[in-house]
Every structure is written in C-alpha cells, then in structure tokens.
Amino acid sequence: MTICARQARMVRLMAVLAPEEGYTLCGLPGVKFMRSNSVHPRGPVLYEPCIVVVCQGHKRGYLGGAAFDYHSQQFLVLSVPLPFEGETLHATEAEPLLAISIPIDLQQAAELALATDEAQAGHVAPIPPVSIAATPLDEPLGDAVLRLLEALTSPLETRLLGPGILREILFRVLTGAQGGALRAALAHQSQFGKIGKALRRIHADYQRPIDVATLADEAGMSAAAFHASFKAVTATSPMQYLKSTRLHKARLLMVQDGLTAASACGRVGYESTSQFSREFKRFFGRTPLEEAREMRNLLAQSPGARLSAYVSAP
C-alpha cells in the first residue's frame, strides 16, 4: 500500500473512531484518539510515556530551547513522562488534526528488548537516547498502526486482536530509529534510566512532599549530578517538573472529577490555595475556573474508560 493510500484509509477510520473534538478513548486501556478541528496556540502539555502517531494535521512541540515538528505519517515517542509546550499548526473542520496515542508498557518493552537482544546476539547498534523525537512512519510500523485502527472499529477484534497489534507496534518502535530512547529508559543503571525511574516516582507520589536529595539518593547519584542529568533529560529542574505535574493533575481533577480549585490544590500537594491559584494562572494563562471550563469543551471522554496514571493534555 502506498503512503497516500495508507493515510487516506487512516483518516477515514479516524473519522469514525474520533468523531468529536478532543480525546476519545476506546476499548484498549490507555489508547486514545486525538482530534482538533482548529489551530490551538502554544501552551503547556504533559504526556505519559507513549507513542503518538499523527494521521493528519501538523503540530509543533517545544522542549527547552528546541522546537520539533510532528505531522502526517510521522510518529512521536516519549520514553519518559515529559512536560513540554505544544501548538496545533494545521487543523480545520474539513481537515482536522487526527492522531492516536498508544501507551508504552515498560514491562512488555523490557521483555521485547531482552528477546531481540538475545536473537541478535548483541549486534543491536547503540542509538543515543533522546527524551522526545519525531520520525516518519516506515512501512511495517505504518501497516501495524493501520491494522490497529481497523481492529478498533470492532469490539470483538479490539478484544482479540488489539493486544497483539499493540505488542507488534511496540516491537517495531523498539527495533527502529527511536529504540535507543526506550532501551535507555529501561536500563536502570544508565543515567537516562535512573532519571526515568525518578520521573515515575514523582508521578506516583506527586501529592506528597518530595525533595531533590531523596530522589538523588534513590538514583544513587549526588544531588549536583542528579540535577544536571535530570535537566538533560527533561529540560527543566526536578522541582519545576514536580510543580508542573501537580498543576496538570489538578487541572485533570477539576475537568474529569468536577473538583473545585480548593479541593484539587489540596489533593495534589498544595497547602496554600492562593499560591496554587497564582501558580496555576502563571502556568496555564487562565484561572483554574476558566481553564476547567475551557478544557471541558475540548475533552471527549468515553464512558467507563480507565484513566491513565499519568497526566495528558491536548
């Protein structure tokens, strides 16, 4: 199948799977569709470890001082939960931005990495790890994503075929151009792997007091080395990362659970409501009430869907 034919088929399927603007979840836990019918200005986002495949449209992300584009028939790999800024550059009612987000199962990725390393007898070429990168879909990965979209139109095929196709997609990514970042995130003794473990710890315990000294000690690094490695991976400091995680989670609680700003700020670890409101408005550009109202208009959640342990935003 040609790239043009594959894209046309993906767009037709996404029109069925993602009929509403925002996020639409499906029968596979963690898999979600993203649709935007208009351009959106630059703003903060926080993605879980995932693979994002763009079927149509054009987005741009900003991490630290670098910008990266991801558009039709490209995929984005985030090997660690990463806060950055993003904007939608091309999306209209007639040609909306359409993408699918696939969570990365780190345990399954570790099993696949071990199996492929054994099969290739150590001949896996080392690829320098990066926190986030966009790469064109090759034919094997593109075909696997298309088969996943086709399976997701049928509840029976979703249940029986979906998990196997997700495993294949993870294998294709792991053995492709972006496999180095995933392998590094799985290697607990590497600096990248140690920071990845620290990020998962922050997401598990963000509502509790966390300090850099404890994180550095758990990583087996000095505070200075941990801080430098953390910034190299995330382009931000540990405490700034923790703050952004708390603010994103508070927004999610207000949008999905209907919490007030006062309730949400306490749930995510803030002791002062006024401090929370100030930092929230500085971060998102709107008050908690304004942002929650706006997000409810954008998000489309399927009934009964399981929420991610991480935070996501359009």
Count every beta strand, where a strand is a DSSP E run of 2 or more residues: 10
Report, as a whole number of angstroms, the end-to-end distance: 30 Å
Strand order of the largest sheet: 1-2-9-4-7-10
Q: Can you tell me the overall shape?
A: globular
Approximately how much beta-strand content do the residues carry? Answer: 15-25%
- Major β-sheet annotation: 6 strands, antiparallel
Any idea how many domains?
3
| CATH architecture group name of the largest domain | Sandwich
Look at the structure and give the mean pLDDT: 86
Helix content: 40-55%
> Which CATH class of the largest domain applies here?
Mainly Beta
- What is the SS-derived class? alpha+beta
CATH fold title of the largest domain? Jelly Rolls
**Uncertain parts:** 300-314
- Following the backbone from N to C, one meets helices and strands in this order, namely HEEEEEEEEEHEHHHHHHHHHHH
Q: What's the gyration radius in Å? A: 19 Å
